[in-house]
Amino acid sequence: xxxxxxxxxxxxxxxxxxxxxxxxxxxxxxxxxxxxxxxxxxxxxxxxxxxxxxxxxxxxxxxxxxxxxxxxxxxxxxxxxxxxxxxxxxxxxxxxxxxxxxxxxxxxxxxxxxxxxxxxxxxxxxxxxxxxxxxxxxxxxxxxxxxxxxxxxxxxxxxxxxxxxxxxxxxxxxxxxxxxxxxxxxxxxxxxxxxxxxxxxxxxxxxxxxxxxxxxxxxxxxxxxxxxxxxxxxxxxxxxxxxxxxxxxxxxxxxxxxxxxxxxxxxxxxxxxxxxxxxxxxxxxxxxxxxxxxxxxxxxxxxxxxxxxxxxxxxxxxxxxxxxxxxxxxxxxxxxxxxxxxxxxxxxxxxxxxxxxxxxxxxxxxxxxxxxxxxxxxxxxxxxxxxxxxxxxxxxxxxxxxxxxxxxxxxxxxxxxxxxxxxxxxxxxxxxxxxxxxxxxxxxxxxxxxxxxxxxxxxxxxxxxxxxxxxxxxxxxxxxxxxxxxxxxxxxxxxxxxxxxxxxxxxxxxxxxxxxxxxxxxxxxxxxxxxxxxxxxxxxxxxxxxxxxxxxxxxxxxxxxxxxxxxxxxxxxxxxxxxxxxxx
Length: 584
What we know:
Strand content: 15-25%
Number of strands: 18
Strand order of the largest sheet: 2-1-3-4-6-5
Number of helices: 22
Structural class: alpha/beta
């Protein structure tokens, strides 16, 4: 366990790095992503010594590495450490750190740096790394220069403990520690007598009490009487990535059936993938609310929002217009109301709501209306898609929702995939685990995040467009470190399909060159470059067959080629049509 100590007593940098990594191991860190470089040498040596308790993964590209770490943290719920050298290396972590803050994912970012005397004097590979990430980290600090002093070792230990805690409480996110090291960086004798320190340092005594922390238990939150008294209420199950999805879905189902309120379940919520738990799931709310008569008829008195607001603009506009009293259930300290309505934030998890016996009374008329509209629109969608043989983008989400192995982790890319999932993802009982980067909603790091999620999990799938995949092709460099399987369902419409839905699409030029930005890439050749399996999908049956039984190892791309213009026109023609004639 203490193999590193002989090194540590000969080199102050190595002693410092040993204290840092040993503290993290005892706190529960089990994965570190390391990018190559010189200034980080003490940390790299120390982390490698901590294997196998801490898995150390080397990734060349810092931006890709950071998103891979983000994916691992999403999958495990625990902080993942990121290590890089000095200079611009750390700047490449920035997009993932922004996403970590916005989607509340724990990351511990360790940027190595030169000491103060080598800064601001044009020493190579040196930039200002203090507060490099602005206001995005939960907490940030620069560590002291390594010192062979028991008091300073205690300072280091406690600072690492605090950093670990701040990754997770009161809200999960990134913590940045900037760590200066002087030469020598390699684990060679430092020319300093450490014998006195060696006699004082007793590892088990020094690390006593350093252990994983557990969430504080809360008392059940009583259901407000005003909820129980209202018939015209809805529950919105928004964007969520709970670690225990079934318990989360059960809690929402209990609340729904206690109140007799419908659950408007975002496609990115696990609720749609545990449909048998709750008979009141409404998956077609976006389409329902496009019918102005229905939207007015279904005006709610009260709304409970669990987690973040769904993607749907129709839903957001409806809530802004009707201005119901809203409660937001989320244990973070964030403001999750982009609509700035009449909102009360309950800083609890939905699982903490008092578990009342389900009140068995007849469905109210309001709930019946929602359920009737859901049934009719689902039928319209099913009958439409069953009869479409042409490869169109929107059908992909509908097909995937019915053909994955139970419990499959599924990463859903931004832009059109996330919207098609919201519109068309069919409720099921497959227990699919949805993941997404909906904090900042960018397309950077999509492939790397998906690989991080899939690493050491069961075989996983990502639904993405061509531009998002191309934006992160360096993610394919992770292939040789990746353990598990990822299937990439690639919707290739040669450009940014989401821009076809915007008014600017009517103005060409500049639309095609500067917004749609077609890249004309042969993905078969791209995959060959990285030794990644590629298959061109020519029918929906072929896609279904490839999804129902996933490989155990490697990365493969299932390319579905569609026409961007036809995809956009199909949505414009059908999204409103599905809910046009469903009034009771």
